[in-house]
Amino acid sequence: MSLLSDLINLNLSESTEKIIAEYIWVGGSGMDLRSKARTLPGPVDDPAKLPKWNYDGSSTDQAPGDDSEVILYPQAIFKDPFRRGNNILVICDVYTPAGEPLPTNKRYDAAKIFSHPDVVAEVPWYGIEQEYTLLQKDVNWPLGWPLGGYPGPQGPYYCGIGADKAYGRDIVDAHYKACVYAGINISGINGEVMPGQWEFQVGPSVGIFAGDEVWAARYILERITELAGAVVSFDPKPIPGDWNGAGAHSNYSTKSMREEGGYEVIKKAIEKLGLRHKEHIAAYGKGNERRLTGRHETADINTFSWGVANRGSSVRVGRDTEKQGKGYFEDRRPASNMDPYVVTSMIAETTIFWKP
């Protein structure tokens, strides 16, 4: 008799050409990932060759009950680390049956910005540092923390090792390998300052693909925590008090910034970001005011600042960038629950073709 695990791990390619495609989209809250699967007659490696599909938008807060059909448009394909073989994960965005993008479809607006000729010419690169907190299921308290109590103060946990410092490493490492398998350009992981908090980095990714890859990586992480009986939180300040919050620091460069004389281009770009500080903050994630307090390696939410190697500023420029006179900078303001389509496209818009 087969075990359940044997059946889950069946290699479909031994008996059929058919594959399973898991269609993934963002629900009405802007952070709730949804997915459902369908069988396809054979392997697919181009999203344009995938069929569009519908779902009940009234159940995801994206359509009224009397006109609930919403259409999924496939946009990016990744290998499925759960079903493996030729099976795939499909990142989709959402439209009405008439072809109009839903208000929650942030990818559509981002794609328009990334297709602007000025942006295309600058080949914008992104590296997103996605911080998150692992929680114990049912109690909404960080993994490894005593129930109703607190661990020792911050200090030994950042990049720490040992059973008393690193909580949930099996989940983190499983996620890392699953993302590499999927074809996501994940560039690293580390334990963060608050115990139970971790980070993965996606990039460098070009343009719209940065958002696709971050959403795919978030989906894989939520699926792995589901298997592990834990919960992942992207709240920017999951524990009040003297604990670090969770951000999504966004590293960014353009072709002009990466070439000789790029440091002057970087400084002009940062100046423009400062002029639109309020607009960016409004788009950089819910609850970010609880995180951006001017403490715990953040700048105050109401004041724009930048500096070289300064983790207490809104925007940080690395020592290497200053020394070489070219490179990239880091926008430290985005919260962990930001929409990567919104943040990446807004940074490109402001720095490349927005006119003060």
From TrEMBL:
<feature type="region of interest" description="Disordered">
    <location>
        <begin position="37"/>
        <end position="66"/>
    </location>
</feature>
<dbReference type="GO" id="GO:0006542">
    <property type="term" value="P:glutamine biosynthetic process"/>
</dbReference>
<dbReference type="InterPro" id="IPR014746">
    <property type="entry name" value="Gln_synth/guanido_kin_cat_dom"/>
</dbReference>
<keyword id="KW-0067">ATP-binding</keyword>
<dbReference type="InterPro" id="IPR027302">
    <property type="entry name" value="Gln_synth_N_conserv_site"/>
</dbReference>
<dbReference type="InterPro" id="IPR008146">
    <property type="entry name" value="Gln_synth_cat_dom"/>
</dbReference>
<dbReference type="GO" id="GO:0005737">
    <property type="term" value="C:cytoplasm"/>
</dbReference>
<comment type="similarity">
    <text>Belongs to the glutamine synthetase family.</text>
</comment>
<dbReference type="InterPro" id="IPR027303">
    <property type="entry name" value="Gln_synth_gly_rich_site"/>
</dbReference>
<dbReference type="Pfam" id="PF00120">
    <property type="entry name" value="Gln-synt_C"/>
</dbReference>
<dbReference type="InterPro" id="IPR008147">
    <property type="entry name" value="Gln_synt_N"/>
</dbReference>
<keyword id="KW-0535">Nitrogen fixation</keyword>
<protein>
    <recommendedName>
        <fullName>Glutamine synthetase</fullName>
        <ecNumber>6.3.1.2</ecNumber>
    </recommendedName>
</protein>
<feature type="domain" description="GS catalytic">
    <location>
        <begin position="106"/>
        <end position="356"/>
    </location>
</feature>
<comment type="subunit">
    <text>Homooctamer.</text>
</comment>
<keyword id="KW-0963">Cytoplasm</keyword>
<dbReference type="GO" id="GO:0004356">
    <property type="term" value="F:glutamine synthetase activity"/>
</dbReference>
<dbReference type="GO" id="GO:0005524">
    <property type="term" value="F:ATP binding"/>
</dbReference>
<dbReference type="InterPro" id="IPR050292">
    <property type="entry name" value="Glutamine_Synthetase"/>
</dbReference>
<dbReference type="InterPro" id="IPR036651">
    <property type="entry name" value="Gln_synt_N_sf"/>
</dbReference>
<feature type="domain" description="GS beta-grasp">
    <location>
        <begin position="19"/>
        <end position="99"/>
    </location>
</feature>
<keyword id="KW-0547">Nucleotide-binding</keyword>
<keyword id="KW-0436">Ligase</keyword>
<dbReference type="Pfam" id="PF03951">
    <property type="entry name" value="Gln-synt_N"/>
</dbReference>
